[in-house]
């Protein structure tokens, strides 16, 4: 809060208004030790912007306005006005009253009284938003809609005697006085300061231009994930930090901006760190409000994941998935919340808190997508179970992308030869990448190899062809890295062998290094290593298409199920029909690199010198075919089948009958009706379920007719989009509703993974003092950049002006 001004203060000379006050709204920091992007509880942002998030939304639970300190009331009123009346929309409101005459609140009443009518979920009662804000003491004429709850619903439709109408009353009623108080509060010209201080339009233009420059710089730096502050922001500093330096650069190319920045009072520059965070919070709030408006009254899905930031603080990313009015699937990053622990109860509490702040209701939840951790997927105490207890139609779908990754990792750990292979692979790559000298030698050998092959005519030339590349290390946390690692080693096999051979004979290396190189070389030239490298390259290559598809931002379920089916089919085909071709490919590779190919008919010896202890007498072919080839493939199939075969898969399978590919070949009216009746009974009334069958019959006749609009489609999202574009969603509204519900189900939670990638870019080691709200606001702007860029500077200035009283005018 700024320092309070009395009446005599306005009668002083105008020049005094620009003097430095004891509490400045803005200031330039003095030279000091390293400044971190940190804020304290005493800043204006905490007092104003964060006040919005600490307010109780439910009108039946919040404290009366006269219980707040008088000097804080206007700030609280502004914060509530920014949030607007609390108007939850439920499918079924609670019934009350005597038996036989039970009635409930109706959401349609909001449209008749949009500016003040509120509903309390906790009290099942109606309240007046305006009277709550501007009634300074208890009043018998307003108590019914402020202190005493109103829930006598049978009286609402009594025409002129309707309690809502009588509450509004005439022009001089308490309610209308509250309305005028609201208008005066939001009208800057009503403030006493503006009654005495008259500023010309040119001055207002300078004030806005100065603030607009600040907003532009803050938004630009945040979109590029750049820090705002500098180590030394004093006047004599050579590098004042990104924000001040960019602001100075902006003014250099525009004289008007330069004059507005340079010729201003000390305490009205609007460049302080608290102002920067205030602007960030305004933009992020506008982004969240935009997303909330996109969702509207539609059903939505929540996708949650947790990770630790640079300072080891546990963060929970919240992503909302829904279908917009145009029929497009949207996955929006909504918030990043700090959690004290990762228990399911704590996660649910924080998620519900975010829901309440933004008028999102658990009753509208129609899907949950998590990564498969026990605190998420637990059938009894997991997060999904807690939400299912509140909303039985919030179906949990295990993240498909995590499923596939876990299946591959599990296979590598449970099959001993595969586990050893990946360990050896990392060992070899670590030796080569241990120094820049070896890396340079590797690339030089590969370059020489390419030149030789080109000279022989064994390689084709072309732009971008024959790149040298490098070895890539596999990581269990990086999706697809195992395949890239194997491909890179096979591509640079000869060059890698040459480097290892050189290390073995180079006396500049010590005995340990030469010994490691010898071990690595023996591993590389062994037939088992070559066999497994080709086998895992083949398996991972088949599954890579599915893995990449499941990581796309907007994946539709029918297409995902189809990819799962084709992936399993290809792996099964590799097992049953491609053994001979595969062995021939491995043998050719061995011959090309002068490696020995074992005789397949002889007895396989597991360890040299231990043949007497070996009980079985299997041949080499039997070992590689049965114990390695078959077992590895079977483990892959077993893991994929088990992880894609749960209760939710039944729902996903039913949704595939809605897919339009191959001219609606799988379109089945009976199964579609079963889908609506079994999985979405609360979204369709009994009459609508009957009517849905007839709509499906008409729809099927139309798509198989001459109209190509709905006929030539391939994925499930396209019919929804087409219905919205052509206006046929009003005709086939039940089909449109069902498709939207199905599209809401999450197939992959890769969006949350991208959020954590953004967090690592935003909160680095040098910015490890970023507080939670600052980081969350920055990430919302950074990730949802398309929305962030869409807001005009003027709208942001207007929001900034309306938050509280400012020292200067921003409008006439």
UniProtKB/TrEMBL annotation:
UniProt-recorded Gene Ontology molecular function terms: protein dimerization activity
One Pfam family, short name: Dimer_Tnp_hAT
Domain TTF-type: 101-198
InterPro entries: AtLOH3-like, DUF4371, HATC_C_dom, RNaseH-like_sf, Znf_TTF
Source organism, top-level taxon: Eukaryota
Protein name: TTF-type domain-containing protein
Annotated source species: Saponaria officinalis (Common soapwort)
Lineage: Eukaryota, Viridiplantae, Streptophyta, Embryophyta, Tracheophyta
